[in-house]
Design brief:
With 110 residues, this protein is mainly α. Helices cover 65% and strands 0% of the residues. The protein is elongated and about 50 Å long.
Length: 110
């Protein structure tokens, strides 16, 4: 599972730190990242939830996350910036965007 190492490095944590956060033995996590063993479904769910990704994404399925299609550079920059917002900030941004395009927040949360 090459995605495991990539995600962990993006997060800037060690295998031991991640194993502790997931409440699994370090040796188990190490074997998952090296590809020697595969985590069971409950562990996969823990890992996906920790990284805020889908199981499809975690397992390398090309159909993952929200399909956004082609985005202009400005729209891509907006999406990248949104990832750094707190939950409260993202609620405000969503409300602002909805006001701009005359939609309700619920239209985007379905």
């Amino acid at each position: 599972m090459l995605k495991l190492k990539q995600l962990r490095l993006q997060k800037g944590i060690t295998q031991k730190e991640l194993a502790k956060q997931l409440n699994i033995p370090y040796k188990n996590y190490n074997t998952y990242e090296l590809g020697y063993t595969t985590p069971d479904i409950s562990t996969l769910i823990k890992i996906a939830n920790f990284y805020h990704v889908s199981l499809d994404y975690l397992c390398g399925n090309k159909f993952h996350r929200l399909e956004l299609g082609f985005l202009s550079e400005n729209k891509e920059a907006i999406i990248k910036a949104v990832k750094d917002l707190t939950d409260i900030q993202s609620e405000k941004v969503l409300s602002y965007i909805c006001g701009m395009i005359d939609k309700k927040d619920d239209d985007f949360l379905k």
